[in-house]
Amino acid sequence: MAAPIMLCDTAGMSNDRWLECRMHGPKGDIPYTIGGSDVAAIFGVSPWTTPLELWMIKKGRMKPKPKDNADQLEMGHLLEPIAAHWYAKKSGNFVYEDTGLYQHADHPYALANFDRRYERGSDGESGILECKSCTFHKADSWEDGSIPLYYEMQLRFYLAVADVQHGAFSCIWGNNPENDLAMPEIERDLAKEAMIFERLDEWIWSLEHDVPPTMSGVAPKLAMESLARIYGDSKIGLPTIEFPTKYEHPLRQIAMLQGKIRECDADKKRYEKEIEAHSVRIAEMMKDHEHGILTTTTDKLLIDFVTKSTKRPDSKALKTKYPTVYADVLNVSTSRKVKVSVQPI
Prior knowledge:
Number of domains: 2
Order of helices and strands: EHHHHEEEEEHEEEHHHEEHH
Number of strands: 11
Helix content: 40-55%
Structural class: alpha+beta
CATH class of the largest domain: Alpha Beta
Strand content: 5-15%
Number of helices: 10
């Protein structure tokens, strides 16, 4: 363990320049780098990025996906000083900014910027403070001192880079610091740290030797979204891929489950027709009333027959009267789903 190397001061730096420094160092002489927010993705536990997508970005083969929650990210940035303020007030620790970009003493690819640093009032020791914010429905992730795994890995990476022994979070999700604030702390764990950097070393090796990772262990929904971004639309005219026999089980499972979905769809349509048939007599009774009730000896049956209005543009009329406007406002969405059909030989 040794003190980190400060590569540059990022204060006043443009966002583009900061991204350049994070990607290859301020001199552009680091082929591949890893930052704190990359660690969870490399381990396959990030809710936002898969290992393969991050690998493609690091290789320069694709650009990071556009942020679809820019306002939320901006809000998180604006809330950082507020989270830091309440941590300082409630912990009694001295919190301060450190705008340096640091490099791990033994792993040159490991770079880190810290939200804040702090000095403990009890012994003056320095620590790393990560300032987070979340919505109310994510607050239970921080209950009873718990920390989301992807954030814990990020902070453990920072402790290693900074060569300090402890760190803390200050996460806020409301305007009442008594109830809407979590401040869990972690101590440096060299065994966990060694495990993290062993994986990061392998990751750098994979970049240097052009060996992409797989989607093994990644949440299926995130994996499919990521693959759609990586490979884009299907291309007409490409040859048919011949699958090896090891894929037979998942392919047969897909075919079987798709068959069950078709059965459910057929049942759903049949049930809807039965409901419609029974509804005729009920609608005759309701006339223009919205609500009805039938009271029995055991319960009450509540009936709703409420008019709901939905406004949608008339696409056909818009296309006919204003073809140029129609073309300009046309929203094209694409999707790719795996479909398996079983064909007897």
